[in-house]
Amino acid sequence: KAGVTQTPRYLIKTRGQQVTLSCSPISGHRSVSWYQQTPGQGLQFLFEYFSETQRNKGNFPGRFSGRQFSNSRSEMNVSTLELGDSALYLCASSRQYREEETQYFGPGTRLLVL
Amino acid sequence: GEDVEQSLFLSVREGDSSVINCTYTDSSSTYLYWYKQEPGAGLQLLTYIFSNMDMKQDQRLTVLLNKKDKHLSLRIADTQTGDSAIYFCAEFSNTGKLIFGQGTTLQVKP
Question: φ, ψ for residue B17 (rounded to 5)?
Answer without folding.
Answer: -90, 145
